[in-house]
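Tokens help. One example:
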Amino acid sequence: MKKLVLLIIVIFSSCLEKDKFNPELKSELSSILIRDQGFRELFNGNITEKRKSELLKLLEISETDFLENERDIFRKNDSLNLIKIEKIINKYGYPGKSLVGEPENETAWFVIQHSGKIADYFPIIEKAGQKGELDLVKVAMMKDRLLMNLGEEQLYGSQGKRIFLVWPPMKQTDSKVIIWPIKNPATVNTLRQQIGFKNTVEEYAQSLGIDYKPYTLSEVNQMNSAK
């Protein structure tokens, strides 16, 4: 009997939690998230034929159109997503966990992270993290990308970048992907753990297929021929 009462309470609490979300906004953000991640999954190409067919159908494009115009389609999708997210933020502020639940609370983060407007929106992202509306790991990742875009050292080691050793590149060995320089590489794993990352910077680099080395900004600038 006690178990039944407890189950009823859990179900009732879950229903109340869902009721306080904005269903229309949640649905819109879900659609935007699918397009943001779906096009990237297609673009990266490391998927089965079955998954490719599913994504093409979901994104309502033909394989021929994607193969012939993938970069243009990719950029257009990101641009349209950003326009939608900017309108949502202007109306609601950051659409976080208490407004739309999870994982839709990450949609605006993904779209901004993939845009050229990180500097404009990072203060809003940071505040959302402080209020518990967004995972602090996501905030840390955007902070790192902002610093990298500014040509500064990142804090958490979450960002990799392709460096062109020869410009223009003619073969695969003319470039390499590195973990962007970290401000305090000796203590970065402690910082990562404190903020909520589940792996070390070495493990993270390995998951990306990167041979980790703690480069300095000076070393990267000397290596980089695409200036």
Q: What stands out?
A: The first helix runs from residue 2 to 19. Confidence is low (pLDDT under 50) at residues 4-16. The longest strand covers residues 160-164.
